[in-house]
Amino acid sequence: MSNLKEICSGLPLDPLPPNQGRDPSVPHAPIRTPNLTAEEERLALRNALRYFPPSHHTTLAPEFAQELRQFGHIYMYRFCPTFRMRAYPIDQYPCRTRQAASIMLMIMNNLDPAVAQFPQELVTYGGNGQVFSNWAQFRLVMHYLSEMTEEQTLVMYSGHPMGLFPSLPSSPRAIITNGMVIPNYSSRGQYEKMFALGVSMYGQMTAGSYCYIGPQGIVHGTMLTVLNAGRRYLGSGDLRGRVFVTSGLGGMSGAQAKAAVIAGCVGIIAEVDEAPLRKRHEQGWLMEVTSSMEHCIKCIREAKRTKTPLSLGYHGNVVDLWERLLLEYKKTGELLVDLGSDQTSLHNPYNGGYYPVQLSFRQANQLMSTDPNRFRTMVQESLRRQIKAINELSDAGMFFWDYGNAFLLEAQRAGADVEKAGGGATEFRYPSYVQHIMGDIFSLGFGPFRWVCTSGDPQDLAVTDDIAASVLEEIGANVTDCIKQQYDDNIRWIREAGKHKMVVGSQARILYSDQRGRVCIALAINQAIADGRVSAPVVISRDHHDVSGTDSPFRETSNVYDGSAFCADMAVQNFVGDAFRGATWVALHNGGGVGWGEVMNGGFGLLLDGSEEAAKRASLMLNWDVSNGVARRCWSGNSNAYETIQRTMEEHRQLRVTMPFPVQDERVLDRALQG
C-alpha cells in the first residue's frame, strides 16, 4: 500500500495483494494452542472466509487453514499493509469528520511497530492485547471510518466491525465491546477456542480501545508507585541508592526502567526476550543492558555505593536473579535489594506471558506449543521457586508488592507459599500496589489522565504540558493537605516530562490528576486550540486502570472490602455514562491486566477541537468519569473517598450521592448475631 487513501479504500480484492507471510524483522506472538476439534477448525475457516466473496475462497482457504494450524489463529497476513504504520497528522486521513479521523490516528498508533509488541499479530501489549483479530477487520474499520458522517456510529464486536448505524451527532462515533462472553463460559480455555474461531477477542485495556500511548502510558503511575512505596516502606521519598528489582520490559512493563530513574533509584529489570531489551535500550528507556549475572551484581553494588540512578536490563530469567540476590545475602549478609515487584504477563501464563527458569527462551516457545501440559507444570515449578526466594529476601527486610499482573494469584494456583493468615478473598502474603499505594490515590480521585496532540507536532505537546502545569499550580495553591502531596508530585512530573524524552509513537502525555484538574486541563487545552496556540485538535483519554474504569478484585478494586470487589457495576456504568455524556468513542472489555474472566474494564476517547460543544462534552463527561468511582469507593467504606465525594458535592450542587452510615459500635452486630 502506498498511501492512507488506499488503506481506507476497503479490502483489496481485485487483485488480491501478494501473500508475503510473516515479516522476520519484527517480533511475533507465541504460537497459540486453541486445541480445536476438526469441526471447530472447519468453523474457524468458514468464519474467516465470510469476509470475502466466494470467488476468492479457493485461494484464501488453504493459506488461512495453514495459519490456523501453524500459529493457532487466522491473522490474514496477506492483508497486512506494507504502508508504514504510525500516527499520521489528523488532517492526512481521508474522512468526512475529524472525530472519525481521530479514531483512525489512534488505531494506527496502536499498531506502530515502535509501539506495538507484536505488530503483525495486531497485539499492542501484554502478550495478547489485540487491536483487532485479523487484518481484514483493520481494513474494514478504516474504510468505515473514512466514510462515516456525524450521524453514524461504528459498532465493534470484539474486533469485528458490525457496521455503521444511524445515530445522533451527540452520540459516540464508535462503540467498542471486547470479550463480552456469558460469565459461565468466560474461562481461559474457552477463550482460546473463541479467539481461534474469530468470535471473541482479548483487548487488554487500551489495546482494544485504541488508546495506548506506548510505555509512557504507565511510566507516571509506575514512578508514583515506586516513590510512594519508598515513603511507605522505607520511610523516605529519597530513593537514591535504593534498589528496585522487577521483571518485564515488553509493553506496559517497559515503563519500569524509565520510572525507576525518574524516581531516583536503581532499577534492575530482568527480561528473557532480547527483542524488547534491545528496543527499550535503543529508545533510551534503558541505560544499560547485560547478560552477565556477575556484571549485574557488580553494577548494583556500585550504584548503591555512589547513589547513582540507574536502569539496568538483565537479559535472563528473573528467577535466577532473585536466587542470586538471596545467595549474596546468605554469603555476605548484605541485602542488595530494597523494593521488589514483578510485571511479567501472568494474566497469560501458559502462552508466552511467563517463561519458566528451567528453559531457555527458545525452548520455552517451542514447548508451550508442542507439549502445553508439561510447559504448564514447568511454569508452576518456576513460580514456586521465585516465591521461595522472594519470601526469604522479604524476611530479611526487602519490601515486595504485586503489580496487578496476577503474579500472586497464579503463584497461589501453582501452590506457592503466598497465603495471608486470616486474609480475605483478595488478599495475599504481599499486598497489591492498589491495596497499599494506588488505592488511596484512586479514592482521592487521582488517576492516569492523558492526551494526544493529533498534529504530531512536538511543539503542540510542549504547549499542552505548560498549560497542564499552570492549571495544576493554580489549583494546587489552594488544596487541602490530604491532596497537597499528589498535586506536588504531579506538578513536578509535568514540569520535567519533556526532558525525560518519553514519547514513543504519537505526541502524547500522561498525567495523574483528580476530577477538578482533569476538567480544568481539558477546558484550557480546548481554549488553546480555539485560540490557535495549539495547531490541531487534541484527543483526551485515560488508562482503563483508573478511579472508575475497572472492576478487578485482584488489582483496581482489591482495596474494596464490603464484598463488592467481585462486582462489575462500576465499570459498566462508567462505559454507559461516558457514552451519553459526550465521549467520541467508548469501550468495554472483559479481561485486562489480571486476565480473561478476572476483570471488567472500560475506556473512552474524546476529541477536543476548540468548539464550545467540545468544552461542554469534556466538562460533563470528565466529572462523571471520576465521580462514579469515588462514589462507589465511598459507599464501600473508604474514608478518603468519603471526604472527596463530600467536597465534590459541595462544588457541584446537581451531584447527590448516597452516603454510607458506618457501624460505630461492633457490639451491635455481636448482640444481633448471637440473638
UniProtKB/TrEMBL annotation:
Residues 214-437 form the Urocanase Rossmann-like domain. Keywords: Histidine metabolism, Lyase, NAD. InterPro entries: Urocanase, Urocanase-like, Urocanase_C, Urocanase_central_sf, Urocanase_CS, Urocanase_N, Urocanase_Rossmann-like, Urocanase_sf. One of its GO terms (biological process) is L-histidine catabolic process. It catalyses: 4-imidazolone-5-propanoate = trans-urocanate + H2O. GO terms for molecular function: urocanate hydratase activity. Its EC number is 4.2.1.49. Residues 85-211 form the Urocanase N-terminal domain. Residues 10-35 are annotated as: Disordered. Pfam families: Urocanase, Urocanase_C, Urocanase_N. Its cofactor is NAD(+). Belongs to the urocanase family. This is Urocanate hydratase. It comes from Lates japonicus.
